[in-house]
């Protein structure tokens, strides 16, 4: 399988590339990871040409502005990446008949009335933030790709770069004697990046016929 990963240098993109390289059954799959250093996903021609050149069987689209506060402060650039960029990726996948796996978020829900086990795939999204709205718009765009899978996940941790992983950054600050500022009135299911990467790699082959929408997160909840 030829696998194309957007956002390849981000937290999830990095974990995915590690997982693909580590598994004996995927280690020899051609993988192309692209990031902002390669091209801006808001550039339609760049996305189209890159996907046309590589001819992927599956595209895992992780690239996004995933910084919720930044999306709220600067909605224009955030929507350009999260909605416009997703549109370009989806369009290229449709042209090339590639399977598209899109990473979405628990932020598509308003958080007011989760069931006892959290939200499930049948719950109706109702985002209250620019970020959540942009991820939901991405989902709707991706649904137009015949072979698509939308994976909603939540609160990723277990990365290696404190500039990206807020849990790692807070832990380091705490150990250094600092007092990290943390949010204590928000709850979700923290999800360990290697666990998510492992689940995703298992879902890449379209032959498994897992299509549509899936929630993938670790069990439990935390503030
Ligand atoms: N982090 C979470 O807790 C969480 C929870 C639920 C869902 N998600 C979703 O999971 C996905 C991955 O999140 P993550 O935490 O791995 O994010 P991340 O670490 O911020 O990585 C995002 C990646 O997107 C790339 N990117 C940003 N703007 C771009 C642009 N204009 N053109 C091309 N590439 C661009 C970044 O490139 P550079 O490295 O070059 O900046 C980076 O590689 C996202 O779709 C996010 O919405 C994340």
Just name the CATH architecture. Answer: 3-Layer(aba) Sandwich
Kindly report the average pLDDT value: 94
Number of strands: 8
Order of helices and strands: EHEHEHHEHEEHEHE
- The strands making up the biggest β-sheet line up spatially as 2-1-3-4-5-8
Provide the CATH top-level class. Answer: Alpha Beta
**Which geometry do the CA atoms define?**
globular
Ligand names: NADP nicotinamide-adenine-dinucleotide phosphate
Number of domains: 1
Q: How big a fraction of the residues is strand? A: 5-15%
Low-confidence stretches: none
**Class per helix and strand makeup:** alpha/beta
Please summarize the sheet with the most strands.
6 strands, parallel
Distance between the termini: 39 Å
Proportion in helices: 25-40%
CATH topology: Rossmann fold
CATH H-level homologous superfamily name: NAD(P)-binding Rossmann-like Domain
User: Over all CA atoms, what is the radius of gyration?
Assistant: 17 Å
Summarize the structure.
With 223 residues, the chain is of the alpha/beta class.
Question: Which helices and strands occur, and which strands form pairs?
Answer:
Blueprint: E1 3-6, H1 11-22, E2 31-34, H2 44-54, E3 58-61, H3 68-73, H4 75-96, E4 99-105, H5 130-142, E5 148-153, E6 156-157, H6 166-175, E7 191-192, H7 193-203, E8 212-215
Parallel strand pairs: 1-2, 1-3, 3-4, 4-5, 5-8, 6-7
Helix pairs in contact: 1-7, 2-4, 4-5
The structure holds NADP nicotinamide-adenine-dinucleotide phosphate.
The site of NADP nicotinamide-adenine-dinucleotide phosphate has 26 residues, from helix 1 and strand 4.
